[in-house]
Amino acid sequence: xxxxxxxxxxxxxxxxxxxxxxxxxxxxxxxxxxxxxxxxxxxxxxxxxxxxxxxxxxxxxxxxxxxxxxxxxxxxxxxxxxxxxxxxxxxxxxxxxxxxxxxxxxxxxxxxxxxxxxxxxxxxxxxxxxxxxxxxxxxxxxxxxxxxxxxxxxxxxxxxxxxxxxxxxxxxxxxxxxxxxxxxxxxxxxxxxxxxxxxxxxxxxxxxxxxxxxxxxxxxxxxxxxxxxxxxxxxxxxxxxxxxxxxxxxxxxxxxxxx
Amino acid sequence: xxxxxxxxxxxxxxxxxxxxxxxxxxxxxxxxxxxxxxxxxxxxxxxxxxxxxxxxxxxxxxxxxxxxxxxxxxxxxxxxxxxxxxxxxxxxxxxxxxxxxxxxxxxxxxxxxxxxxxxxxxxxxxxxxxxxxxxxxxxxxxxxxxxxxxxxxxxxxxxxxxxxxxxxxxxxxxxxxxxxxxxxxxxxxxxxxxxxxxxxxxxxxxxxxxxxxxxxxxxxxxxxxxxxx
Lengths: 259, 229
What we know:
The structure holds two protein chains of two kinds.
Chain A: H1 2-19, E1 51-56, H2 63-76, E2 81-85, H3 93-102, H4 107-131, E3 135-139, H5 142-151, H6 156-162, E4 171-176, H7 179-190, H8 208-230, E5 233-236, H9 241-256
Parallel strand pairs in A: 1-3, 1-4, 2-3, 4-5
Chain B: E1 13-19, H1 25-38, E2 43-47, H2 52-63, H3 69-93, E3 97-101, H4 104-113, H5 118-124, E4 133-138, H6 141-149, H7 170-189, E5 195-198, H8 203-217
Parallel strand pairs in B: 1-3, 1-4, 2-3, 4-5
Helix pairs in contact in B: 1-8, 2-3, 4-7
């Protein structure tokens, strides 16, 4: 242990000497992109120079903390960034919000409404930014949308066809936190559970606390199932934020290097 | 293979009318509704693009020109799903005759003309059963165009297909756009077993045919709301 520390300190001056010869800002390598399915009509993936980085996880899993750390780091190293998330489109975000308040839409409708919101951001925010060479950080992506729908009994091939319009990200990180931990984190921040994040529409339990735990466990299972198909990175989100962000940086460094 | 409501064991029946703008299909469906009501049938009429909540987003999107072929397609699918799950299916379960002015075929035709992949569009609507009868009002393209264009209406951006950059003149764009949709309808006609109605014929002639066809294919007695005494 001590020996290793010593090596590191010894190496330090040599490394800093090299740094002066390296470019101050490194241009990320371009890697080929593709859509999950047929994609967006007329879109040329070859022109997408930026990188799409997705952070997935439940509310309270540390998504926003991690994303703001990544943004700080990426911009610090000279990369332009854009943050996107669900329910943020100009087209339908208001109506979607309204629909959720009234809880009036049935599952296929809500699913398609979310897909519309996603498509609007895909075409008007994500793709233009990638064309311009930005690092796009997505606070949730189609995986959350699919997991929510799967838990509600929607047909998987139907969802797969629907989200054939989505671009395959360069990196997907799922922040894995147990439902028991999540509930503590949510209370530490909000003192109240959210209706939808507790899956109250599913009728799992009339008790919101029980429903939250059951729903989040179902979501976790759905993510693990999706992981098998889509092969994203599952990162233990129960560790201190600094440790988690070090791991994320490492993964994204690999993406920037085109690995 | 998709199935009809009758094949799926629903007590109700769904009748769809399809055709170009100006084919006279809305007039025909109105007359049909009148007749069915007078026969004492439990009947419900549903129009394309009419669900309240989705309508607000659709009209905003169209007005502000925010829609692309993909979002245009998805927002109409959302509207359809809303009506399908909250109105059509429950009413068909309750034994109603449901009349739809436009059904999934409108989306199949329009979205494909706008450049969406046909299998993707069909996949979106795969949750919907097929109508028990689909009337396709087939008028000569020039007749349909004349019915709309003779009044020199102000054509809306999407209605005229202006988003496709077919022509800078809205009327010319409308002509080309409608022509392409017409081709899509014809291509689907056999596949989905459309019942063709000659929309160049007199209104009464068409209505007579429609009513005869419904009598033959759907026993009306089962749909009357008369109490069982």
